[in-house]
Amino acid sequence: MVSRRRFLQAGIITAGAALAAFPSSLRAEDKPAPLASSIANLKSMKDLARPISLEERTARQDRARQLMAAQHLDAILLADGTSLRYFAGVQWWGSERLFALVLPAKGRALCVCPAFEEGRARELLANSPDGKNADVRTWQEDQNPFQLLAQGLKDLNISTGTLGMEETVRFVFSDAMAKASPQLKIASATPVTAGCRMIKSEHELELMRLANRVTLSAYDAAYQTLHEGTTQAE
Asked: How far apart are alpha carbons 156 and 107 in whole angstroms?
């Protein structure tokens, strides 16, 4: 199997070779033109954005647990994706290696991650609800992470319960989980995740309005630079 490091090295070498093969005359033409005043005068609005707080994420998880009870789910499983960030404030780049966060209806969160990523996982989870108390279990390259996850669910007393899978979890992960814990029922977590995310708080609406302002300001600035005969470099 090609390691991540070898893949990145190969990509850098390939990109460098392609750039070297490109005619210098064409590269000179593609040099960016000086910024138009409408773009140069754009001001950052990042200071207007109030980050989602720990208390807000705690409220999201509490709401998720209410919906789990209503949907008869014992836990939901989140992998990489926006729901992981929504509920836990964790942004994780997905790969073929399992990283999973289980939010149970009762009990503390369970995290399963590659051993070499443990430090980063703990650092990110420290800023999530009950993150410092999360049950973090790591697996080595010669271990089956799904067996580790199955044991974690057993310790939460839900090995024969119902686990909701967030909609973007890869099938290969959910299928492997079903095989590792055959008594476990796999269901959709969408009623929980969508049930939380589709109803926006006033703070979330504030952030969305700000994002729209930023986008429209950029569009307006770009529009003002357009003129007949605009070149590719411009």
From this structure: 7
Q: What's the confidence (pLDDT) of residue 232?
A: 81
Structural domain of 106: 54-197
Count of structural domains within the chain: 1
In a domain, 13, yes or no: no
Look up residue 179 and give its two tokens: 């095989």
pLDDT at 27: 54
Structure tokens, 175: 């299928």
Which CATH number do you get for residue 119?
3.40.350.10
**95-116 residue pLDDT tens:** 999 999 999 999 999 999 999 9
